[in-house]
Amino acid sequence: MTAPLLEGIRIIDLTRVLAGPYCTMMLGDLGADVIKVEAPGKGDDTRAWGPPFATGGESAYFLSANRNKRSLTLNLKSPAGLEALKDLIRQGDVLVENFKTGTLERLGLSYEALQELRPGLIYCTITGYGTSGPLADQPGYDFIAQALGGMMAVTGPEEGEPTRVGVAITDLMTGIFACNAILAALFARQRTGLGQRIDMALLDSQVAAMSYVASNYLVSGQEPARLGNAHPNIVPYQSFKARDKYFAVAAGNDGQWAKLVAAMGKPEWAEDERFARNAARVQNRAVIVPLLAEVFATRPAAEWMAIFAEVGIPAAPINSIREVFENEQVQARQRVQHIPHPTAGQIPQIASPMNFPTAPLEMRLPPPLLGQHNEEILRTVLGYTDAQIAALNQDGLV
Predict the structure, then answer these.
(1) Which residues of 321-339 are buried (b: 16+ CB within 10 A; e: fewer)?
(2) What is the pLDDT at residue 95?
(3) Which sequence positions are flagged as catalytic?
(4) Is 331 among the domain residues?
(5) Residue 328 neighbours by CB under 8 Å, 6+ apart
(6) How far apart are the C-alpha atoms of 63 and 195, rounded to whole Å?
(7) CATH number at residue 150
(8) Are residues 277 and 128 part of one domain?
(9) CA proximity to 99, closest of 148, 59, 135, 137
(10) How many domains in the chain?
(11) Are 102 and 40 members of one domain?
(12) 156-206, pLDDT tens digit by residue?
């Protein structure tokens, strides 16, 4: 067994809710020592975001984004608490925070000051709108970023209300982008010895994630429309109603289209000039989609799945969350693992999608209780004496 990939890297995690914690959890999964700094008596807001709650009171939401971390409580509004944070930073490699823009600067912890405390420190901020521009001082939320950044304009039924994605996708994407940026900065530091200032914004991530939809607009000048579950550039690539329930099917190229219609008993559609090529199918979407829907409605979804599997057409039932975790492929890939928790017993966790057969990732630590590792971190990381630790406890600063 090889050592964890980020063994020896210490992350000072001043984040809460989702984008930041998801980023630092990924770093923890990769083997970094993540120290989650929280406010005494309260901690991360999501500790209270329930129901559901696990046995012992931890919310399922908090449990989803905080494994492989240690919790240290510090009152950063007090001089002693702030000094303890500075001591921690001196022992760190990366600082990640998602306070409002300028919060750490007001505490005397600008990027320049941080470099004096810990030369080579990588400092990543995650905010709603970044550290520049007219909205820099505004608080950021996933839902608002989805609205402002165009996601909702292209999500939902063609006739109906614009819709947010069913998970906090902007938060999650920002966390992933932030993790990538931090890994690049760590790699650069190996070569240069220099730290980096990373400025991550929910809105930036959301705009970037519009990808080909945004490119379609930038190239054509035409506003994209909501298409429900359909694709703006590929037909068919959407959901259809079988006799009993909905399923998804994708013909990503003209060869797959020919196989699809042959399996449906309509081989002539592959020769019809209106449908033979994808560009023609996109132009004639309003004609071909109802024809497909009419045929698909004649059989149960399971029969269509069997037919498509035999000829190699990508298709899937639209699973409930329960059905996701009953799926044979999901189970074969061990997407759910369990880890012992100090109050909740064995808790289920969604496994990291980063798979390294040569260096398997581990769930070393369950999501921590608030302040669970106070004494451990103060003593072994910061080298505080019994008297110093007692004073912090007595004053309610940890």
Answers:
(1) eeeeeeeeeeeeeebeeeb
(2) 98
(3) 171
(4) no
(5) none
(6) 31
(7) 3.40.50.10540
(8) no
(9) 137
(10) 2
(11) yes
(12) 998 889 999 999 999 999 999 999 999 999 999 999 999 999 999 999 999
137 and 259 part of one domain: no
**Rounded distance between C-alpha atoms, residue 353 and residue 288, angstroms:** 37
Q: How many CB atoms neighbour CB 103 within 10 A?
A: 15
With respect to residue 222, please indicate whether it lies within any of the assigned structural domains. Answer: no
Which pLDDT tens digit goes with each residue over 21-54?
999 999 999 999 999 999 999 999 999 999 999 9
Domain with 58, as residue range(s), is: 10-209+347-394
Residue type at position 320: S
> Does residue 232 fall inside a structural domain?
no
Residues 143 and 287 placed together within one structural domain of the fold: no
Planar angle of CA 48, 72, 381, nearest 5 degrees: 160
DSSP 290: H
Asked whether residue 227 is assigned to any structural domain, the reply reads no
- Beta-carbon contacts of residue 314 (< 8 Å; ≥ 6 apart): 249, 250, 252, 256, 308
Nearest CA to 14 out of 74, 83, 91 is that of 74
Q: What is the pTM of this model?
A: 0.93
